[in-house]
Amino acid sequence: MIQEIKFKNFLSFRDEAYFSFEPAKDDPINRIVTMPDGTKLLRFAVIFGANASGKSNFLDAFDFLRRFWSQVPARNDLSTRVTPFLLDKNTPQEDSCFEMKFYVEGIKYWYKLELNKERVSAESLYFYDSVQPTRIFWREFVNGQSVVKFNSAVVRLKPAEIDAINLNCWKNMSFFASMTKVNMSIERISSVIKWINDKLLPSIDSGTVLSGFAKDQMLNDEGFRKYINEFTQKADLRISEIEVEETTYNLDKNQLEIISNAKFLDENERAEILAKGTIKDINTNFRIRVKNSRGEEDYVLPEGSQSAGTTRVIEIESAIYTTLKDQAFLDIDEIEASLHPTLLDFILDRFLKEEGNESQLLVTTHYDPLLDGIDDLFGKDSVWFTEKKEDGNTELYPLTDFKGLNKLSSIRKSYKNGQFGAVPEIYV
Q: Which domain holds residue 314?
């Protein structure tokens, strides 16, 4: 589980942004998880803010780290793909900085990263076996070379193994990615890499297409089929059952030629299709139950007959199901897109009431009626805001920074009136 993240000089964040999943001491409503060291962590947080205020950029910090930690660049002269704050003459030449504290198998870790477009300037990982952190590895950029060093009391490696790591840890990649190249297992480090690969799910935005992922789940995961059919029935989508069927199609010469040049396929997938000369497709049908003068009748409708909202909610639920099953972290940008407000409340309520689960969900939204769920769905300390200042810098701050919240008759109304900032200014 993630405890907190800090970063600066990244996209619209010039100054340091700080976010925490730790609950406020005086707010008992939250669905929390208690770590072995006694730290309490929230399972849910929501970011409000005007258009172009930096909500999406905030989520991009998580997605950047996830990708940077995992990706091995093709060459050592390629960009790290980090984007600094560009609305200042100094910041493009300065490093972007990231810190994250998280728990893996009950152990707390602290990761630090400094980098620019060309190289990693500094990188380190600590773990906590007491109040004070213990450094596992650290990395510096010395005389044009990236140098990785280890705490010998924690990591026992042969000189040849350290040399191999340094040879493969290019200046434009993370230490974790270099471990993939050398195919080496190191205690504590390997468990963190597994957490990165298994527990940090890709970000979802309004343009993310998850239909293929959802179909594959419905075909191969009996637990998900039960989960989504139960969901559609409780959500009153008029769907009694979703049916899936895999069909194999033979490809002709022209189709095989198109496949051989298709850029959207990875090499392994392309090679398998060309070798077999076939392609598989998953057909989804929706069994709809209606009441008429003849009583109750079932009709089967194809996938294309469903609304964008129905398709969207099934895609979102497929991701949330994975988050719950893997006890992972998921962030969703503009979660309200194509969803009815009542359905959004139902989705969040269902997620938050999942007991004994260490999954975390972080969302952004423009949908201010969600604030009516405070002290019911979630607590005040789950609410954060982003606001873009005149100099282009995004500020991130929690609702709990404001005093006298319990005296307000409506937090939603106070937000709409601009009491917390993070709303658009309309000039007429």
A: 207-327
